[in-house]
Give the backbone structure.
Amino acid sequence: MATAQHPSTPTLSPGVPPLRAGKGNSFLFRKLHSLLGIIPIGAFLIEHIISNFEATNGPVAYGLQVRFLNSLPLVRVLEWVFIFLPILYHAVYGVYIWLSGKSNVVYYPFAGNWMYISQRYTGLIAFAYILQHVIRQRFMGVSLPEHPGAAFAKVQMELANPWMLAVYVIAMIAICWHFSYGVWLFAAKWGITPGKKARKRFGYVCAALGLGLAILGLAGIWAFVGPKYRNTPADVPLTTAQLHLPAIPPSYVPR
């Protein structure tokens, strides 16, 4: 005999459940987590990718960019207040959200749930990469704030290892995905894109943003490993007059 469904039984629908405000302090913590992902972390990501794209113009241009960034007033305070601490909070609270949440990938295998999972894993990849990158490039080996002319060769030497090159490429793609989908989530959570149609259209914008950033980032990586600037000196002199000199072919041997 068939049994009638109880009127209080909720009707399950496919996809991701609607965004809801948290309870108590968690609402503020989640809002802060979401906001920090855009400002300042997202802004820093865009700046960092554009700065690294300067490597396509050669070791001198890249070194001058590194020198400029390190000459900003109170740069060490800016690093900690607007980069290191926000990234640390965003990563730690993001892991907390992941552990306290639940996805429906097994039961409802739709795009929204897979994007939820990919957002979490790309976040882990991003944090692990940023941690090792800051330690290796900022605190190990030659000090780039004092020797910006060595910046190109330092990165080039690291990327000479095929495993590290693979790490950089995978991390670049993961970070750009994480950020672009994070922008989409931010707009949805903050009521900027109400309704399915607005979110769908903005999704195309975010996809274009992520793809554009990934292309710029991968182009910057290629500048270090490609043949154009191979075997860069350990520390190049930084003069603007050298910016327009042609690159020395790898096969060139002075006579």
Remarks:
- DSSP finds eight helices and no strands in the chain.
